[in-house]
Design a protein that fits this description.
This is Glutaredoxin-C9. By secondary structure, the protein is of the alpha/beta class. The protein is built from 6 helices and 5 strands; from the N terminus they run E-H-H-E-H-E-H-E-E-H-H. Helix 2 packs across helix 4.
C-alpha cells in the first residue's frame, strides 16, 4: 500500500532551508520568503509560535483562503524583514506578522482586521485568486 506524501502548509525557515539544501539549492530564509510571496496568493510571514500570526492565519482560513505561512526564527527575523522591505517599498515599517495578498504587501494583523471589518478583505482575496466564490 502506498503512503500519501504529507505536505505542510506551514513552513519554518530551518526546515525549508534544510530541505532545499538537500535538493541541491542553497537559499537563505529571506529568499524563501521572497519566493513564497511571489508564488502564493496569500502569505503570512510571522514569528514561530506568535499568537498574532496564528490569529491572522485563522482569520484568513475563516474566510475560505488557505494562506501559506512562513514562520521566522528570531535569528533570521531581521534578514527576512530587510528582504521583504527591499522588494515591497510600502513595507517600510513592517513588523511581524506581515500579510501579502496577490504578491502585494497588505499589512499586519491590525490592517487585516480593519480590512475585514470594512469589507475590503474579501474582494482583495478574490482578486488575488485565494477565494473561488
Amino acid at each position: 500500500m502506498q503512503e500519501a506524501i504529507k505536505i505542510p502548509t506551514t513552513l519554518t525557515a530551518d526546515n525549508t532551508v534544510r530541505f532545499l539544501r538537500q535538493m541541491g539549492a542553497g537559499p537563505t530564509p529571506s529568499h524563501v520568503a521572497r519566493r513564497m510571496v511571489a508564488e502564493s496568493a496569500v502569505v503570512v510571514v510571522g514569528r514561530r509560535g506568535c499568537c498574532m500570526s496564528h490569529v491572522a492565519k485563522r482569520l484568513l482560513q475563516g474566510l475560505g483562503a488557505n494562506p501559506a505561512v512562513f514562520e521566522v526564527d528570531e535569528k533570521c527575523e531581521d534578514e527576512v524583514l530587510a528582504e521583504l522591505r527591499a522588494v515591497h517599498e510600502s513595507a517600510g515599517t513592517a513588523q511581524l506578522p506581515v500579510v501579502f495578498v496577490g504578491g502585494r504587501w497588505l499589512g499586519g494583523l491590525d490592517r487585516i482586521m480593519a480590512s475585514h471589518i470594512t469589507g475590503e478583505l474579501t474582494p482583495l482575496l478574490k482578486q488575488a485568486g485565494a477565494l473561488w466564490l
